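User: Okay, second chain of the day. Same drill as before: sequence in, structure tokens out.
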Amino acid sequence: MGRPFNILVVDDSALQRRILRAMLTKRGYHVTEADCGSAALRLCAESQFDFILSDWMMPGMDGLEFCRQYRRMQGDHYGYFVLLTSRNEQGAVAEGLNCGADDFLNKPVNIEELESRLQAGARILTMQSQLRDKNAQLGAALTELQALYQAQEQELTEARQLQQSLVPERFRDFGAGQIALMLRPSGHVGGDLVGFVPAGPDEVLMYAIDVSGHGISSALMTARLAAYLSPGHLGSNVAFQKTAQGYQVCPLDQAVARLNERLLNEIRTDHYATMVLAKLHLRTGRLSLCQAGHPHPIVLRAGGQVEFLGQGGMPVGLISGAQYETVETTLTPGDRLWILSDGISESTDRSGEMLGDQQTGALLGDLAAHPANTALDALMWHLSAHSGTEEFEDDISAILWQVAGSQIAQNPQDIGAVAGVGHQIGGSG
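Assistant: Same drill. Structure tokens below.
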């Protein structure tokens, strides 16, 4: 322990105390005396002792009661307690151990035996001291880690707010239809991104992106992708091209191919992304759509039919020179277009079974009675009920476009088996 041990000798016999003091002091110990248990307790309250050598039989408070009270008053410091007794029956030894004694020594005391017992106790005290020091170091390290964790939590909370700000407008009524957006990361931040860009008086551009992986690196990549599709800087938006009349949406397959090359040449990361880029003409309902590995967009017709759009396509950021196709369809009054991330169709129930495309289509049919501004909240409620939790393993994002006009069938039975599920594939355009 790097210092002489402090020993408290407790005995009602002054002669016995002097003998023990002389023998122990000669061997380098610091010795303090007490003539009874009460006096010893007062000394223990004022000072810390490494060893307590206490006679068992003392008037008033005997050695057993003194040991009991000493153990109750101890803090972090541990004192090695040795009972001095002429009793050697097994029952007495057990009684002493139950009171908190560490060792016994028969009287009259043999100094060689006492020295051996003290050395054995010193090894225990040294290990206890080292353990206490290591616990203190561990406690300091845990405190530091807790402070770092809290700082990281604060930073991640701010990062979540910043990422959510990438989708500043979650609902808009265009007159010809309404759009609603949802972005819910599985952790503080995630790799999903959704948004829309008004493209003149008659068109709206919609995009949904899902970056591979989770967490901070994926979130940073979504922030970079958001810049490539920024509605405030059409000159740097990959989906727009400048013409004599201003900026117009370029062919969607070209826009996605351009984004693919940007990821490979500028970002240089192991991450890739799936996406859907869609353009809707508000007056005619003509929908053009380019799919790059993202789940198939779903059209829920006013009559209840479900159509899956697109042909799959290659994710962006994987291979240079990838080719993409644009498909087209027409949305009519009462139709709904859903663009969902795979966190929805791949959400699992309590048995581990995924929701899947067909059940996802049926679920969207069940949401037919909900207006666009509440349908996404209802979708999350159904997903939570299906999974049995509100914490999902994957990011969840969605775009809902509701065409103005006659409402979708209000009775889920009218949708019945989703009134037939179709897969709509348009020609490239």
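Confidence is low (pLDDT under 50) at residues 407-429.

User: Thanks, on to the next one.
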